[in-house]
Each structure stands twice: as C-alpha cells, then as structure tokens.
Amino acid sequence: MEYKNVILEREDNLAILYINRPKALNALNVETIREIGRAIDEVKEDEAIKALIITGAGDKAFVAGADIIGFMGFSAAKARQASEEGELTFRKIDFLEKPVIAAVKGFALGGGCELAMACDIRLAAEDAVFGQPEVALGVIPGYGGTQRLPRLIGEGRAKELTFTGSNIDAAEAYRIGLVNHVYPAAELMDQARKLAKKILKNAPLAVGFSKIAIGQGLQGGIDSGLKIESEFFGLCTSTEDMKEGTQAFAEKRKPQFKGQ
Ligand code: CO8
C-alpha cells in the first residue's frame, strides 16, 4: 500500500511502522492519522505479521503532537470530528489481536504521547521526552490522553501532568510507570525487536487473546473482563498451538507455534 507520511516495513513476522514527517517532528496531521489507520488495518489483515513496532523516523522525535498549524482554524464541529477520528484510529491498536510496542526516541508530546500510550508496551530512549502540553495551547488532549494517562500512571499524576503541561524525561517516565524500559538511543530499536521476538516465541493467538482480555477488563470492568477471559480460555483449546504447547511440555522439548 502507498503511504506518504508513514513507512510500513516488514522483517519476517514483525512489522515496523515509522511515523515519517521529520520536517514537522512527525506531527500528526489528518492525512497522517488516516495513514496510521490504514497501516494498522494492513497489519491486522496480514496473517504473516504477528507483532508491530511503532516508532518515529529521524532522531529527534517519536511524534511532537497533533499538527498545531493543521488544527488552528478548525471550527468546533471540525475539531470534534478530528478528535474522534484520531481516537478511533488509536482504538484500532487496542482491538488489534497482536502485540504493539512503541519505541520512543525524542519528543512524544500531546498526540505523540497519546499514540505511545495506545500501544501495549512502551520502550524509551534515554533522550525521550513525554508530556501533554495541550492546555498551554488552550486545548485538551484529544486522542485519548484524558483516558489512557490516568489508567497508566494513576489519577493524581495524570492530572498534574495534564494541568501543568509539563514535560518529563525518560527516567521520570520510567519511575511513574509510563514506560516499561529505558535504553541508550542507539540500542532502542534492537531492544524493541528483541522484545517482539521474545513475545513471538509464545503462541501468537494466546498473546492476542490475553491482550484483548486485559483491555476488556480495564475498559469495561472486571466482570466483562473475566467473561472474555474464560471465553478465550475455552477458545484456546480449539487451537493447534495449545496442542503443540502442551505436547511439547509433556515431551520436554521447545514448542513450535504456528499461530493457528
Ligand atoms: N505541529 C506542527 N508543527 C510542529 C509541531 C507540531 N506539534 N511540533 C514541531 N513542529 C514543527 C515546528 O513548527 C518546526 O517547523 P519549522 O522548521 O517549519 O519552523 C519544526 O517542527 C521543528 O520544530 P522546532 O523548531 O520547534 O524544534 P525545537 O527543537 O526548537 O522544539 C519542540 C521542539 C519542543 C517539540 C517544539 O517543536 C514544540 O513545542 N512543538 C509542539 C509540541 C506540542 O505542543 N505538542 C502538542 C500539540 S497539541 C496535540 O497534540 C493535541 C492532540 C489532539 C488533537 C485532536 C484533534 C486535532
């Protein structure tokens, strides 16, 4: 598929999505949001792809936010529509039954922090900078930040970050649980690949099911989460991977999963 502002690369069963507007520090204009949506659909539909890494092209930014110049003249209706479109696009990551890792170097501000938070796991380079500076522009986080930030770091910290619009560095992001690991910038992508490969040694369907069950419980409450958990647990018994995983254990060998 043709893209202008993103690059979707494949490395065996791993896809890497680069947000690629370096002249605007990878800021998300409407066109880029749409391309991210199409790229996620492409990853979803390609059965050979089992995991996705999202990162920013260039050294300076993951994504420096929504494109401020792009939304300056928006009417209330247009701004609301743009916010909804971004929210629904990032929601596709929640519903994708494949692990998605954000590899963040440089700025992850506003919509960039929101994109990173929509991913399942966040890895940061030592130079990464996170923040929700929207209130300094007279707006609020509009791509899910008001919902995902408190879920990830707790209400008090989320409110402080959002109300002050302060940026935090990678060490602080790690301390408050916004990122899982911090690495020197030069190692970041290799570490992201390494983590994806470690996950992919496991049964891909089971990884996807556990992702959806975790999300359902966090977003829909524990009862609906437990319902999905038991449904998926039942579904696992009809997979080739479960037969292979349990048989390999009994035969004291490493399993070879096919994602079926
Ligand atoms: N939008 C548009 N252009 C941007 C953005 C952005 N978010 N960030 C950087 N750029 C552009 C700059 O304008 C500049 O362009 P040019 O070279 O043509 O002047 C180029 O990228 C390089 O940026 P700087 O020269 O500013 O680089 P610095 O290293 O001096 O500063 C910063 C880097 C600190 C990241 C600075 O660029 C900055 O503060 N950027 C804005 C960060 C920000 O406020 N982000 C939040 C935006 S609001 C948002 O994300 C809302 C999400 C929900 C939207 C819902 C619907 C639309």
Counted beta strands: 10
Work out the radius of gyration: 19 Å
The CATH homologous superfamily of the largest domain: 2-enoyl-CoA Hydratase, Chain A, domain 1
What binds here, in terms of ligands, is: octanoyl-coenzyme A
CATH architecture of the largest domain: Alpha-Beta Complex
Into which percent range does the helicity of residues fall?
Answer: 40-55%
Strand line-up across the major sheet: 1-2-3-5-7-10
- Please report the number of helical segments: 11
Q: What percent strand? A: 15-25%
Which descriptor suits the 3D outline? globular
SSE topology string: EEHEEHHEEHEEHHEHEHHHH
Q: Give start-end ranges of low-pLDDT stretches.
A: none
How many domains is the backbone divided into?
A: 2
Tell me, what is the CATH class of the largest domain?
Alpha Beta
| Estimated structural class | alpha/beta
Oligomeric form of this entry? single chain
CATH topology heading of the largest domain: 2-enoyl-CoA Hydratase, Chain A, domain 1
Major beta-sheet overview:
6 strands, mixed
Report how far apart the termini are: 26 Å
Mean pLDDT: 97
